[in-house]
Queue: 2 jobs
Job 1
Amino acid sequence: MVGVTEPAPRLRVAAIGIVCFSLFAALFSRLYYLQILDGPSLEEVRGVLAPLPVRYQGERGRILDRYGRVLVDSREAISLTIDRRVFNSLTVERQDELLARLASKLNAEGVATKVSDIRARLADQRYDQFKPVPVAEDVSSELEAYLIERRLEYPSVDAERVHQRIYPQGSTAAHVLGYVSAISDDEFKARRKGSPKPYEPADEIGKNGVERIYEEDLRGTPGVRLVKVDNRNIEVSSTPLEPPKAGDDLQLTIDADLQRRVEALLPAALGEARAQKKKQPTDPDFKAPAASVVVLDVRTGEVLAMASYPTYAPSEFVGGISNFRFAELTDPAAQGPLNNRVVNGAYAPGSTFKLITAFASLSRGLISANDVWKDKGFYTLERCEAHSGAGCEFQNAGREVFGDVDMQRALKVSSDTYFYRLGELSWDRRADLGQKPFQDAAHAFGLGEPTGIQLPSEEAGLVADPALFKKRSQDNPTAFPPEFSDWFTGNSVNLAIGQEAVLTSPLQLANAYATFANGGTVLASSVAKAVVDHETGESKRAFDRRVLKSTPLPASVRDPILAGLTGAVSEPEGTAYEAFQGFPLDTFPIAGKTGTAEVVGPNGKLLADTAIFAAFGPVESPRYAVVAVVEEAGFASKTAAPLVRRVFEQLPELRKPDAEPALPIPTRAAPPKNGNAPVTSTPVRPGPASDVSVAPVSPTTPPLPPTSGVSAPTTSPGSVTTLPPVATATTNPPPTTAVPSTTTAVASTTTPTTLGPPETTVREATTTTTAAAAAAARDPVSPARPGGG
Amino acid sequence: MLIALALSLTGIGSAMIYSTTKGANGPPDTSYLAKTLLFALIGAALMVVTTLVDYRRILDRVLLLYPLTLALLGGVLVLGQSRNGAQAWFGVGPFQLQPSEPAKLVTILTLASYLSAHRSDLSPRRIAVALILAAIPMGLILLQPDLGTMLVFVAITVGMLVVAGVRGRYLVVLVMAGLLLTVGVLKSDVLQDYQRARLFVFLNEGEIPDGARADAYNLQQSKIAIGLGRVTGWGYGEGPQTQNNYVPEQQTDFIFTAVAEELGFLGGAAVLGLFALLTLRMLRAAQLARDDSGSLICAGVLVFLAFHLFQNVGMCMGIMPITGIPLPFLSYGGSALLTTYLAMGLVLNVHMRRYR
């Protein structure tokens, strides 16, 4: 007991004690509050677990063609899920055993599944951590029933009903439709707040085409239900709080039947182009890797068909596309199958631009239509400047000599020298015509500007002028050194034949020819006709004809040009005469212009020419404008013109009697929708087996509103100038920001702009619904969607 | 008495761990229970062993124990495994050792040794030395980073300084400095955003900050489970939230929710009552200790366990931030259970030798 110090003051220990016991008091009272006092609000959850609000997807709207044929539908598929919270509570051994059992069951059912894949899914952070993770898509209802009956043997495993896209017409119109896949992080963040149709992190979203542009309309409004489960995690009840609501349908201007026929033409045309013999071994190869065609209604701006090759199948994205496959689709070597060349491509128009040059020259008085020029096969600048870029001599293709040419004949035979001369004249007379008469004319026909089509990333094209040359050299001296800052005579000369300073998308070019055909009205191109109610088929929002601008087209200007364009097709010396041999030009006269544009590849070497043909018909009362572009295919007269001829032959009024019968036009807007379900005779869209009491029978869907009589040529107005007045609506949503094409120093490079960086978030649906919910989705009295889009 | 309390709490803990981990379906999973019982057995044995050596002899070994602990804490930063964002575990075969747990005891012993040695002259310089002794392990733990465990050290240090007789005004200064330090840590980059977010999630009723969604959910489920318990609870093994694993981490940090849901207010209050008795016993041991060092050891252990209890149960009920601090005796986890028993052993040691 020696050396024992004083014990620590009892007071201080007591102080600690007091603090401790006040904390105990706090814990007791909080426990009392939570368990005894805070009663009534929790009383209702007695007997079952706290009901969890579960959001589940409404069905995505369909996409229909102009006659109501279904291009994209939704169907319900069964997906197997694993609840991670339950799964993670199992021991690793039990987890492994469960997954092995599940995988072998799935494989036995024909759904190839690897345990490692399931593990990867479960580890994927993109899934909502509180929602079951889908591990197998599209399993049979037998397997669903089997697993649900054996819940105890398969803890954490459940089945969900999800909506999936189906494509009754296969890959037809793939580029117009676009595809849906899992929302990316950025898209999710952008849409997180304030969306009337809120997204969950793994929801699907339209990634391209009209699926992307009309996402807000097509997307179903999610429903919410309260799910109660008992203490064995078995669902005892599911109370719909808010029923989901199907998204609106979208009606396109596309004629699915024509679209399908036009698409079928492209591979053959490319094959023929590749089979051409080279004149000289040193000529570039006819690789013909890609082609595109667009058919416009010149009176309305509606796109009737829009085909781009190579193409892809949007169905590949259903249930998630593999990263490997997506990389294949976006590999440059694959020539961009996801790329819609009609809208996103940028090509030098070549001689098809002579329409613009001719219009400008005649209307600005640069020349008279009857002035005759002696074509010697080449053209030497009268005022040769030291560095005019291409030297002082310009020649016809193959130095062909045409002799005496006036405007009409120059267009017919495509005399370059005639237009070279106009190019030099226009620059000589810049004092009174301004520096850019051709460019002004191009803009007057809608070139160099978006057509306003409702598709993503529309190519705005390029119409360069002296001011732009100066500006881009100042802005970016590295890419455009000072020697490219000045506009020379040679630039005007090349512009006159659509080279170097001008790029257009096939759609723009078609729209320019449509403008000429319809008497000078530049219309917004349109691929969407209307947003219609999913249930009733009533139009909620129509995208009517929209005039962008008007260009005066007096007969003195129009007639000689029209004669030239008609002659190019119908007269023996016309560039497209051969291609239209045997075509019924007497009953369906066609006007057109070939274009063979020089293209320089990425390595600076000359590629085979781009073959372009732009046409419209019938000449006296034009209805259709058609443009075909075949890349690296040589002379337009040999490739693009025959292709356009075949496109015309697919039109209903020109189709041969032995042609494949047209796709049936549905009389009702709603065919049976569930791919698995037997076809029923009920007029209601049959859903999955459902609690009928929740699903009031919807009235028979009325047929779609009658469409304009495209199939009956006799009903067409006699003349473009006597078109019935059409409301000019401005309801078109603005297209998503167009990516301006990178204008290179050599403007004739026609690499189509590719779509944005590949979006690698590709995954499958996790949208869930139950039978009852799906039934509720068909509630016909659901209110109209909020907001106007 | 202390032993009985410890064993009954361990018994309740084992039962609840079994209830939360046996699995809802299929044959019961007994692996968690087995491990817990094994550790309880080892813990009890260690407790007995601890009482065999006079605590003053143990204090004499502090000069060896303290550097060893620091080495372990430093080593885990280099060699350790990461879990829940903190690098705090050594993998030893099938087991994982968390050196911050025994570090609490060593720090208690170190402070007890130092403070009792300078009992008569606790000058600001001495206080500073004591603070540094506590601060080194704290700093290493903060690097893991494990803010919750660091706060345990803060509580222990403050509690022991109070009991050691540091003058009131120094204490005030220390508290102020502590507050400043806390604010500094919160503002600095030591904590990741998600850690900051989860610290404050319990204060927010409406908006849930990014990164704290899991915690908010955890807390919500925990409160539902406790609220569902009512007076008598659902009965052992019948709690719906518990049996469906709706409360994450319910066998470890959130085990109190299982108690409250399945055994109700009565069960929850009984557990708190047992802890209250335990606290009383330790207070008594602190007061009856024959010397300062004994008293300080008891006070240190007392603060350590009380802080764990308050922080953990408070977290489950939404009145404290969410941190990974286990509930003594009840939570599943070997290192923590062994440490708790060792701590009990120390208190017993002091109490047994109060007359000699």
Job 2
Amino acid sequence: MKNLLLAILICLACSGLAQAHSLHLEVSDNGDGTMLIRGAFSTGETAAGAMVRLVARSSGTVLTELRLPTLGEIELPIPAEPYDIVLDGGPGHGVRKAGIAPPGGFSPGTAPHASSFPPQPQYVLWTLALVLFSLTAVVGWRTQRRIARAADCI
Amino acid sequence: MRTSQSIHVLTQSHRKIGLTVAVLFHVALYFGVLSMFTPQLAQWEKQSRHFTASSDAILPLDSLVPQRLDEGTWPETGITITLPGSREPALAIGHKLMAPILVNPATGQTITDEGPGPSALFVELHLGRVLGRPGVIVMGLACAGALFLVVNGWWLCLLKPGSRVPLFCAHSTSWERGHRHLAQWLFPVMLILALTSAFFGLMFSAGGGLAWVASRGEAAQVQPVLGAAVFPRQAQAQATGQSAAMVSLDNLLADAGQAFPDMNIQKITLDHWGDRAATATFSGPSRTRPWLTERINRILATYSLVDGSLLRHKSVDDTHIVARSLSAFYFLHFMTDAGLAVRLPMFAGGLGLCMAVSLCLLSWSAKRIRHAPSTVSTFVQTRLLAASVVGVLPATAAVLAAQWLLPTDLPDRPTWLAGVLYLTWFSSLTWCVARTNVFHAVRDLLAFAGVAFCLLPVTHGLGVNIFFWTALNQGLTSIATVDMALLLTGLALCLTAWRMTTNFPGERT
């Protein structure tokens, strides 16, 4: 009986093995104008082979693009302008982080690009949802009153 | 006396737990039933997959794969080639960290994928992932509650066979009878679906917790704790750095097919392509025992890409018993490798269970309206239930129509599609509260959904200029089948709406 229970518990726990893994991006400053970028899955597996991109915030141009080597980490020089680090782990796995600044700070005159948050679709859809919610509340209140009046008449 | 007490306890628990989890379980179940046809829907919703590739017309792998591998920068290991099949008509060359390159196997042309469509959204809704981790946990709990309801309901039926004592109201309505009869007839299928749903639903969310307890707080994921024991990994050969000529992939595929006839080869994994240590691993489910090889316990055969020799073979039984048991659970729930003989009864069971949940909620609404027709709580509860359960039908039709009506180059298209589904679903609540009789609103929603489903084949036909008859003529069986299924669904909904006009309990207003 004990063994059976143990087998069931292991089975239950193992079903989580097939669930999606999340990708983690770690960036550390080496203090000498370079940084160490490390990619790994939440399972502990390295993200060797994942594409790393350094993307300029002002223009959106890709400053550097390369794959993580077998160890899952890579050392890169820190760009002089504000940038984002993008770790592309394929469909459903992508992490974006603001890049760390070089020792003397970012070069002047490279102001970050204005943020586009919130994105347009969410903005429009939430507004529509709010309108619909208000309409539902008003119409519902009126209908409920009609029902209550009709019940009183009976 | 003891029996009557048991019936009372069972009835009360069935009612209370049912009201708590029924709506969520209905959502999981409804989108789960739709997800059974994800491969067909995915082909229908993407114009890039509107082609037929008979086995005679498929180009050899040697003319499709090496060229693509030479063109791009690929990781050294784990390059996967997914062969065309009933789930995906295109040949996919990819890696777990890259979006795959899709190739039409008949013409050799690269296909541009349209991105996720409604079928992907249905899967997300089925799993509750649209609300992130809390959504998955809530769906898991709802499925566990549903398992209790299935067992508890069956027990009730055993204690009072042919009972005329209704669960909810003084008048045993046709809805309630339908709920009970469906539950009795489809009990085995319902039990399998509810059991596997609860299993996966809970463990997808709670597996980390179990791992944390088992490892005394050292690991928050199952993989590091049990993965090595249940799915041991073979030591991978290191690249030598010396280039070598690769043998023909087609010849290797034919050799693997002949050597292991039980293996239904679906995927080839390439490691160290172009190197002296290059290997190709052929994998797929078992033809004779697919329930033991679903998703996680594939049969494997690894060949050297330099001399074509067999390096390793893993059969169905060369694995941990937990992996095989888990595979059986996957088979019963996902049915990826199951044939029609398994799929159809499970689909019927899922649909029946969906209808049973809908009927019980409508029956409960009828009872509430009879007892307290004019209270605010009755008004809110009955409208919310109707909109949640029936409103999902027009919402589904709307998102499928939006797939063909929205511009293909619309930025952030998946968000717009999801928005169409949620807004249509919410507007069904607006319609429900606008009507003084909630059952009139239900009938209207069924009629709207019926008409919309009937129009979907036309919308699709206008979008891609391939109508039902042209799809059949061109051999696009999957596309034609989905068109026909949508039309039949629409007609069935219209018929149900028409029947409801003469056969339902109304409110007093």
